[in-house]
Design a protein that fits this description.
alpha/beta; three-stranded mixed β-sheet; 14 strands; 37% helix; binds zinc ion
Amino acid sequence: MRIHTAFALALLLTTGAQAADTESSATRIPDSAITQVTGLRERALKDDVAYAITEGLTSEIGARLAGSDNDLKARDWMIARFKALGFDKVWSEEVSYPRWIRRSESAAVIEPFAQPLAVAALGNSAGTPKGGLETEVVRFESLAAMQAAPDYLVNRKIVYIANPGMQALKDGHDYGMAAQVRVSGPASAAAKGAIGFLMRSAGSDQNRIAHTGVTHFEDQAKAIPAAALSSPDADLLDHIFARGKPVKIHLDIDCGMDGSYTGANVIAEITGSSRPAEYFLTGGHLDSWDAGTGAIDDAAGVAITTAAAHLIGQLPQRPARSIRVVAFANEESGLFGGKAYAAQHHTEIGKAVLGAESDLGADRIYKLTATVKPEARAAIAQIAAAVKSLGVDYDAAAPGAGGSDLSAVHAVGMAGLSLHQDATRYFDWHHTANDTLDKVDLEQMRQNVAVYAIAMYLAASAEGDFGSAAGAFAKQADSD
Ligand code: ZN
Ligand code: ZN
């Protein structure tokens, strides 16, 4: 009995000592920071800054195609806005990339029935010869079916990938499938000898408006004309094909590469009180496609994160670490701003303690996930508890890479936090002329500001880190 007691006592002491060890190495958010959250949340839920930035960028600048005249105008506008909002530091870091321009696009079925088609050229598409292409179209149900077909079937023809339409889903996961067709379909068709490419738009709407977006050619010299059809036009084409007669299309696209361009990431910082060199990394992308005014993609993301950082800057007591907002350059045609940021800052990646960007519109955040070191899981749970009453659930099992602009930064070792927005409406308007300010719901946008402000403030106040270090999440980044 005595032995048992002694053993139990020893066990208790050992366990106690181990618990104390784990506690001392575990990242923790101090109670004093948690108490600040109520005020931050109240102010965020009345915030007008995020909406004003979105309204300003869409009204005073409008579409912000990377490398266009509006690229520079938007950067100047954002620099002025950061300064007016009282950010402590505002600067730019150059980002260079090939410039692609769109002049015009049209398409029509000419046989067996003459019908106009609503199309949008894909970013990086080549133009057609002057006057357009007139040739037979070969239809495939999917990208995989086209890839499996013998080359002679597509040689010297326009390939059309019918692809099922996307469903409007809260997590937007159908976009992955549709975007894959857009990104790799044209190069894949070109490799088989096709001279043009058409696909059903990567969108969940039934408007007669096509969705643009980037495609990728390993060798731009081998690019072919590539465009998306609006979903009703893809349906129309399917009905025409169902007649079993040869289908001929006239495709006329005037677009193409136009040298290279040097833009910039626009960066602003709210300086931390005791560890100012370390920072929470946030932001969105300043560029947009050219048909709409780029309200939901991604003026809203820049606006939400800027407004959240601004609220933290207004507090009487700053968090220990800084809050760094990046309005990224040219996300749309290949994550150029994010890659340039990662290249420029990878040697000091440990200073970017945690990162979360906003690039899925302005609808409600419903889920939080993270990719951090195990010892920081409890601190992430503290952040999750602080945003729970805003309707945000914590999925501790799922990764959180931080978002598209931060994917390159995460890949070189930054810990990531993902604040998942409801994407149900997003892909109805994404990359179309319908991406305009009226799609932004003020109350939902304010909820975003509240969640970002709380998450940023708590992470910037944490005692201990989240695991950012050179190469720290290389494995997870591959599988995210
Ligand atoms: Zn975006
Ligand atoms: Zn986009």
